[in-house]
Amino acid sequence: MEKKQFKSESKRLMDLMVNSIYTNKEIFLRELISNASDAIDKLYYKTLTDKDRSFDKDDYYIRILPNKDNRTLVIEDTGIGMTALELEENLGTIAKSGSSDFKSEQEMEEDFDIIGQFGVGFYSAFMVADKVEVETKSVDEDKAHLWVSEGTDGYEIGSSDRKSHGLKITLHIKENTEDNHFDEYLEPHKIQQLVEHYSNYISYPIKMVVEKSRIKEATKDSEKPETETYLEDTILNSMVPIWRKNKNELTDEDYQNFYHDKRYGYEEPLAYIHLNIEGAMSYKAILFIPGQPSFDYYTRDYEKGLELYANGVLIMDKCGELLPDYFSFVKGVVDSEDLSLNISREMLQQDRQLRLISRKIDSRISAELKNMLENDREKYEKFFLAFGNQLKVGTYDNYGQNKEKLQDFMLFHSSKEGKLTTLKEYLDRMPEEQKYIYYASGSTIEAIEKLPQVSIVKKKDFEILYLTEQIDEFVTRTLGAYGEKEFRSVSSDQLGLEEPKENETEESKETAAADEKLLSKMKELIGDDVVKVKTTSHLTEDVVYLSTEGDLSIEMEKTLNTMPQ
Ligand code: ADP
Ligand code: MG
Q1: What distance, in Å, lies between the first and last C-alpha atoms of the chain?
Q2: What backbone phi and psi angles, to 5 degrees, belong to 562?
């Protein structure tokens, strides 16, 4: 065998793997399985373009073989395999553009958690193994080869007597340490669990011999039936995910089952969206609008995000980049063939791709909600009750950047019709002479309706939005106006209502003078709690009301006063 050194970038990556600063070591299995799947894909495409080859589905699979006695874990595939030259090129170096981006080890360590979510490729084997053997035979070559490495000090290449095409990788699993229980990678049930978690939707069967138990035939009819264990070759992955199926093959129930299987929520989802996008960036996605917020939704602990798959391989449980904050309640999966798993591909490229997907997702959720608002008001109100507050917060996130987009999703209680209204509906009902969109704040509708200021506006037959949650007034303030009509609190001293004309008679002048005296006396008595005491001709039943100068409502002033300055 011939001893060789790794190229420098590979050596560095290898160092990191061996010393393994990355805690999520179990992803090595996902990496090796995805390589095996890629290799079968390559062979599959070759058979499509080569008349002399045929593709029999049964010939293509991935097999896993843990062996506790030898402390080895074998992963074998029936893919395209590698020639001697390819072995050298692919496993001796990271021949990918991204590798030169790793300017320093320190920088890399800092980035490692993000990168680690994507993938570290073949070398991840060294996170769990102190020795790795690869036996492979290419479909294009008669000879088979062996590649062996014990880590950073290089690798050896020799020959192998492997007869069939494909690749077999043998991991010599490390001994347990205090922090790491490497033994578990030799346990079939652990392997099974990892495959189901990360590689469930790999499109080729992943097989393993699994121990199962059954009732002993001879004891079946007896009082105390005995069980026996037996071995069975089992396919660990479910292969075809629902999102790869055709929409018209699927029923509502299929989507609901998926929703429950994934534990997105206990109740039924309000809506789902199934996307199948082809283009510069191809991907499939299933998105759900849940029926209720999860118990932690309005807490700091809640983490938004969608499951992200790269061609059936799970990369992230919660990819936050895929959802804007105002839609953080959305659940679902995205699977793209165009995303790469590997560390060595440009991260920037990935960012751009994720942005592309997230923009589409944003617009599809918006369209779905708009549709619900227009065509199924009852359902929309249920939605708004559950997640409306998140949309409200969204209006003033990012300096109100999203307010235009979100304003039409808002619902408010109103003095008219006794039901929730959108701003557009309010505007459509508004008489021509009305200058502002009026609102009144209070903790309940009943409390608001008792406000003297409310009856002033109501007397004019103008509609008032009843803001019962503190956040509502933040929304009206962030929006400022809707359809060029400004929001105006009913407790403002400038309501834009026409004052009834008073005749300038001697008598009225006299009362005015008397009023003036009385008012200044009142101001004197109340002191600094008020700025000014005025008369008004608006009141009907009440004798006095409090108003604010400018546009703040009293409720809002209270809120602002309790906030740290
Ligand atoms: P990536 O999969 O992103 O290309 P990896 O580090 O995982 O990067 O693998 C490096 C290369 O080694 C692959 O591109 C492929 O050419 C080769 N390779 C790895 N595993 C296999 C396999 N099971 N069969 C054939 N080739 C493989
Ligand atoms: Mg790979």
Answers
A1: 73
A2: -85, -10
Question: What does the DSSP assignment read for 368-398?
Answer: HHHHHHHH-HHHHHHHHHHHHHHHHHHHHGG
Distance CA 231, CA 208 (A): 10
Backbone angles phi, psi at 213, to 5 degrees: -130, 155
Distance 360 CA to ligand 1 centre (A): 31
One DSSP character per residue, 73-139 reads EEEEE-S----HHHHHHHHSS--SGGGGG---HHHHHHHHHHHHHH--GGGGGGGTEEEEEEEEE-T
Distance from C-alpha of 213 to C-alpha of 204, rounded to nearest angstrom: 26
Cα of 167 vs centre of ligand 2, distance in Å, is: 13
Per-residue DSSP letter, 510: H
**Quick one: which of 91, 77, 42 has its CA closest to 166?**
77
Q: What's the whole-model pTM score? A: 0.74
77 lines ligand 1 (CB under 6 A): yes
Q: What is the pLDDT of residues 246-301, one digit of tens each?
A: 999 999 999 998 998 888 988 999 999 999 999 888 999 999 999 999 989 988 89
- What is the distance in A from the centroid of ligand 1 to the CA of 539? 81
Tell me the C-alpha to C-alpha distance, in Å, between residue 209 and each of 175, 212, 216: 24, 9, 20
Residues 6+ apart with CB under 8 A from 384: 391, 409, 411, 420
Half-sphere exposure of 549 (CA within 13 A, CB side): 5
Residue 415 DSSP code: S
Nearest to 423 by CA among 439, 399, 444, 401: 439
Ligand 2 center–CA 202 separation, angstroms = 13
CB of 36 within 6 A of ligand 1: the answer is yes
- Kindly identify the ligand whose nearest atom is closest to the C-alpha of 340: 1
124 lines ligand 1 (CB under 6 A): no
Q: For residue 422, how many C-alpha atoms fall within 13 Å in the half-sphere facing its CB?
A: 15
312 lines ligand 1 (CB under 6 A): no
Number of C-alpha atoms within 13 angstroms, CB side, residue 223? 0
DSSP helix/strand/coil, 414: strand
For residue 548, give the DSSP letter.
B
Q: What is the pLDDT of residues 498-516, one digit of tens each?
A: 655 555 566 666 677 777 7
Question: Phi and psi of 353, rounded to 5°?
Answer: -65, -45
Secondary structure class of 236 (helix, strand, coil): coil
- Which is the closest atom of ligand 1 to the Cα of 36? 23
| Dmax (CA) of the chain | 120
β-pairing verdict for 413-414 and 283-289 = unpaired
Q: Is the CB of 342 under 6 A from ligand 1?
A: yes
